[in-house]
């Protein structure tokens, strides 16, 4: 019996499922936002029936983000925060970043913990980890008992310098557990043992908000999977591009917030290595948003801090507008432009696209599920770019699409329906190009030297036109583009980032001492990977040091290869490269020792089904391009054999997506089943 691996990616509009059992099978079903487990189980039933033979199920979900932002009808739980006396306002004061510098009406995001639930208690650990004042454990216990009677079941504990000595946090957590049995308790030293108390406290609070939500969801999902015969391993995608077990997800839920988008970037990285593409742009357009990423030498870019619930402007996360979470995550630019994004006319008579989305319920007007507002999908249907039946068997109504566009866009603007639909598509493309610019031009990289990978249910439909706008001459549509992120779940490795504080001048740290720090980190990593059944021969470790000149606020990350002296020299070199100068005479401080542990997973071997040698178009239809209406041949993706060449204009209808080749573009199918498109 073949080993079966399954990837499930729950998006805002569709739930994508990929099954690998020697071959690949894919399925798209509508997401059920208010009952996310129901949509997953419905999709698995259609894709597999029984789950008895499934060895591994890898899951990506936006439930953390959606619930955090209140988008699925559930509220964040009431939580209490224990801090040192005099520090109860730390989550409100923050870093005083002003995302809108010249806006006198700007209001900071509301703290996740109201002031009456932020409790300051006596006790202090010094910056060297030495206890200065004993913790008032009785006060912690009394407050927890009182709050428990008031219905508070989630507690965050974040004390000063707990990364150096977690004694007080451990004592407080134990006291809370005794006073409020069954409560969720999250401590700073467990979720973010690093310097800087505000970032550590914010990370602790966000984890506390998400912990009951994600743990309840995963427990319910696991229970229903077991009821259907699942006896395998359930894994969850992390924001850093690696997978981890459920235990890790429940312990650090904030590390899994961007799991779905990260899976897409991992899939691009995997394919770029297979196809020997050194510089790639990932473009993922789904039903709600579009996301862009950059992949250099087969690796996605990763950053250390992310702001949950932050506002996005022109694809850029506005710093200071959300709640900092200090976990590694793949660097993504995201804009509110997807297939379900709503078009509307503002009071000044200008056409706008987004940020509102019709989502899966009720969805675009053409779905016939009760939606009446025009969306990007409705516009594409009017322009002849979409088939009558969408992925998953959903039948589309051109009449409903035309009615929505006519009544809410065309007539108010004095346009005919086709002109209005074309305007909607062009504005959506302009919005999405911002995300691509952010990960290329604004990083100092010329996009003309990149290859674009376009995926998601709507990505291949817009890819060529976006590439022309960006000056990109080569676009690759991977196999199964509509569920490509779910495929990324099956090629992701286990990945864990561990760290330990050092916080001392490099001159006072001995080589033996540093080696012992990394030895302990490796022991912890081995414990985690062993729980996840990763054999020793499939484990890879990378060591790094966060270093800075004495008195600097923020460190640089330096590879550590077993020699502290070499690391100091590398720090000076990197500092000169980054900031234009180095000061070898200045003392260097070692802030944090870091270890990244990777457990290699087995990757599916992708094989393209053999199609006809010279497939004839199934038929042709009128499709609207910049040149106007053109008779355009229609092909089925399943019929295209490796080596077959297409000339634009053409439409390729895949089971999970639709690919558009405008005039002036040509495409050839490679040995992996990808359609490689180039401008002529």
Automatic annotation (TrEMBL):
Pfam families reported for this sequence: Hydant_A_C, Hydant_A_N, Hydantoinase_A
Domain Hydantoinase A/oxoprolinase intervals: 200-496
GO molecular function, one term: 5-oxoprolinase (ATP-hydrolyzing) activity
SUPFAM superfamilies reported for this sequence: Actin-like ATPase domain (SSF53067)
GO cellular component: cytosol
GO BP annotation list: glutathione metabolic process
InterPro entries: ACX-like_C, ATPase_NBD, Hydant_A_N, Hydantoinase_A, Oxoprolinase-like
Residues of the Acetophenone carboxylase-like C-terminal domain: 511-672
Domain Hydantoinase/oxoprolinase N-terminal: 5-178
PANTHER family the record matches: 5-OXOPROLINASE RELATED, HYPOTHETICAL 5-OXOPROLINASE (EUROFUNG)-RELATED
Protein name per its UniProtKB record: Hydantoin utilization protein A
């Amino acid at each position: 019996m073949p080993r079966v691996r399954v990837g499930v990616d729950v998006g805002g509009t569709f739930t994508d499922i990929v099954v690998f059992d020697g071959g690949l099978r894919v399925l798209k079903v509508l997401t059920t936002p208010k009952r996310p487990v129901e949509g997953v189980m419905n999709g698995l039933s259609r894709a597999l029936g029984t789950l008895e033979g499934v060895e591994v199920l890898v899951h990506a979900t936006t439930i953390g983000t959606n619930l955090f932002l209140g988008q699925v009808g559930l509220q964040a739980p009431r939580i209490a925060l224990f801090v040192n006396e005099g520090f109860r306002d730390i989550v409100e004061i923050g870093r005083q970043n002003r995302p809108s510098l010249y806006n006198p009406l700007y209001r900071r995001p509301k703290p996740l913990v109201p002031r009456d639930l932020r409790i300051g208690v006596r006790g202090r650990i010094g910056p060297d980890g030495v206890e200065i004042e004993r913790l008032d454990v009785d006060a912690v216990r009394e407050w927890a008992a009182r709050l428990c009677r008031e219905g508070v079941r989630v507690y965050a504990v974040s004390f000063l310098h707990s990364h150096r000595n977690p004694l007080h946090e451990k004592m407080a957590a134990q006291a809370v557990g005794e006073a409020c049995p069954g409560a969720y308790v999250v401590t700073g030293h467990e979720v973010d043992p690093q310097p800087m108390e505000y970032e550590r406290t914010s990370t602790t609070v966000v984890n506390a908000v998400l912990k009951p939500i994600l743990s309840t969801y995963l427990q319910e999902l696991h229970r229903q999977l077991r009821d259907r015969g699942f006896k395998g391993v359930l894994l969850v995608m992390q924001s850093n591009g690696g997978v981890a077990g459920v235990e890790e997800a429940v312990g650090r839920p904030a590390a899994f917030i961007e799991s779905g988008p990260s899976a897409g970037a991992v899939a691009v990285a995997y394919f770029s290595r297979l196809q020997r593409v050194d510089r790639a742009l990932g473009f993922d357009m789904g039903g709600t948003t579009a996301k862009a990423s950059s992949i250099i030498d087969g690796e996605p870019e990763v950053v250390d801090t992310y702001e949950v619930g932050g506002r996005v402007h022109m694809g850029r996360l506005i710093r200071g507008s959300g709640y900092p979470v200090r976990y590694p995550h793949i660097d993504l630019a995201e804009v509110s432009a997807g297939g379900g994004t709503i078009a509307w006319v503002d009071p000044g008579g200008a056409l706008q696209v987004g940020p509102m989305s019709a989502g899966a319920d009720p969805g675009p007007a053409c779905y016939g599920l009760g939606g009446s507002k025009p969306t990007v999908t409705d516009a594409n249907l009017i322009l002849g770019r979409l088939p009558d039946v969408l992925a998953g068997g959903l039948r589309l109504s051109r009449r409903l699409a035309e009615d929505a566009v006519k009544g809410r866009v065309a007539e108010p603007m004095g346009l005919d329906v086709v002109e209005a639909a074309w305007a909607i598509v062009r504005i959506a493309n302009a919005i999405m190009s911002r995300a691509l610019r952010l990960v290329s031009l604004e990083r100092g990289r010329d996009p003309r030297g990149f290859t674009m990978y376009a995926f998601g249910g709507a990505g291949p439909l817009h890819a060529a036109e976006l590439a022309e706008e960006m000056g990109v001459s080569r676009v690759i549509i991977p196999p199964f583009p509509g569920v490509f992120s779910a495929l990324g779940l099956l090629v992701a490795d286990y990945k864990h980032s561990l760290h330990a504080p050092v916080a001392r001048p490099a001159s006072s740290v001995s080589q033996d001492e540093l080696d012992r720090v990394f030895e302990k980190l490796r022991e912890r990593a081995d414990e985690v990977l062993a729980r996840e059944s990763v054999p020793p021969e499939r484990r890879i470790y990378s060591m790094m040091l966060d270093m800075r000149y004495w008195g600097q606020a923020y460190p640089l990350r330096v590879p550590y290869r077993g020699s502290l002296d070499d690391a100091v020299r590398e720090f000076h070199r990197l500092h000169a490269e980054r900031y234009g100068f180095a000061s070898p005479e200045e003392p260097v401080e070692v802030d944090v020792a870091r270890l990244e542990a990777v457990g290699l997973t087995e990757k599916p071997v992708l094989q393209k089904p053999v199609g006809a040698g010279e497939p004839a178009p199934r038929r042709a239809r009128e499709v609207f391009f910049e040149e106007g209406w053109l008779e355009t041949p229609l092909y089925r993706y399943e019929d295209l054999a490796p080596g077959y060449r297409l000339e634009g204009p053409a439409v390729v209808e895949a089971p999970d997506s639709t690919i558009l080749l405008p005039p002036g573009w040509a495409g050839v199918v490679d040995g992996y089943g990808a359609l490689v498109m180039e401008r002529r």
